[in-house]
């Protein structure tokens, strides 16, 4: 009974961290996703930016996210210009540092995934769009990106799931999301096994829901890949 | 009357390979010109140069009296005004060998896409017009189908309707039946013949010799990037002047 009430209490405490975990995920996946689209389009269509984007991806994929978060949280404050800039009210808060690191990191992975999607767009579809008078942003918005993102979605789904787990690193810069709360409980109770199992269970449930949502999105976006019903 | 399409001294090379070596061509309103020639003769390249899907190295393209303005940059020719190019592309319905419908859109969405987003016409009007066009090409029942659920012939008829939805001044067909199963060729040719009967201006690159002979008002035989023979289809297909054209026609008519 004592054991059960400990688990129940732990769960209750951990669940109070779910909103922050979800919030970190949603904001960084949205911001990072938008940035990923911009980066991949720049790389595909604007030659001068291609090497910049390649370097960005190389640097952000090649170093640990934890290190990137530390660099932003502890490192940026060393510069006077940063401390006196309009961004300081944001950058001195661990919340925004975590969001920034997570967003920049997922943008690098995301842009590679979307690049693959862009390469899979049938050249004939682009050519017929040009022949109809589309070009530039209209062409991207109506034909290229809808096709590329559909193609990229399964791989991007994995990236979103990876991001849910990556938010646990935000606990290292003091944020009390699920993992942060878990560490706090353990440091009071020394019951690592039970607490981490509870935390793991919560991540599993979140990602289960997410996986189903992404699968539904795939089905909904790809009626043309299903067999004809009529 | 202003000719619908004028091409003057068009040159185009791919690397060191010169595909068009100075081609000139006038298409009057309502004229149907079939362009024939062996593969590699430059006929598809010629057709694709008209809406600048390929950029000619030199020469002039005039659509409805309006010259497509080109400029030279880094030694290569490119459009001087992309707005002009996009507007003029809208007046030239291009039909591809491989249909090139947009796979993520239904047939109806394919038809109304450019009229709404490029030509900025009211949605309701575009839908009404698209439905009439689908009826005309016999695709009314497939309006909500996706291209992947259609046969090649159905896809090509939808693609023709998509070209017509732009209210084009002229239609350009690039081997419209070449990627179709033989039993599906007829339905597409029938639709094209119907458009000929409406008096539309058309350029047709094709290997369907007997069809070309039947519907066109003029035939052009291209060889190695030049117009080798040009004239009434009766003459070009029936009694060619040049030896090459004679051999080519004999080879293709007797299949």
Task: Describe this structure as you would to a colleague.
The complex is a heterodimer of chains A (230) and B (255). Chain A is an all-alpha fold and 230 residues long. Helix content of chain A is 81%, strand content 0%. The model of chain A has no long low-confidence stretch (mean pLDDT 93). Chain B is of the alpha/beta class. Chain B has two domains: 5-91 and 169-253, Rossmann fold (3-Layer(aba) Sandwich); 99-167, no CATH class. Helix content of chain B is 37%, strand content 27%. Chain B is built from nine helices and twelve strands. Chain B has helices spanning 43-49, 82-90, 107-117, 123-136, 152-164, 182-197, 209-215, 233-238, 243-253; strands at residues 5-14, 17-27, 32-36, 58-63, 66-67, 70-73, 76-79, 92-95, 170-174, 201-205, 218-223, 226-231. In chain B, helix 3 (107-117) crosses helix 4 (123-136). The relative contact order of chain B is 0.17.
Terminus-to-terminus distance of chain B:
40 Å
Query: What's the end-to-end separation of chain A, in Å?
Result: 59 Å
Radius of gyration of chain A: 21 Å
Report the strand count of chain A: 0
Q: So what's the overall shape of chain B?
A: globular
Mean pLDDT of chain A: 93
Structural class of chain A: mainly alpha
Oligomer: heterodimer
CATH 2nd-level architecture of the largest domain in chain B: 3-Layer(aba) Sandwich
The overall pLDDT average of chain B reads 93
Number of helices of chain B: 9
Strand order of the largest sheet of chain B: 8-9-10-3-11-12
- Indicate the CATH topology of chain A: MetI-like fold
Q: What is the N-to-C succession of helices and strands of chain B? A: EEEHEEEEHEHHHEHEHEEHH
Structural class of chain B: alpha/beta
CATH architecture of chain A: Orthogonal Bundle
What is the total domain count of chain B? 2
Low-confidence stretches of chain B: none
CATH level-4 homologous superfamily of the largest domain in chain B: P-loop containing nucleotide triphosphate hydrolases
Biggest sheet layout of chain A:
none
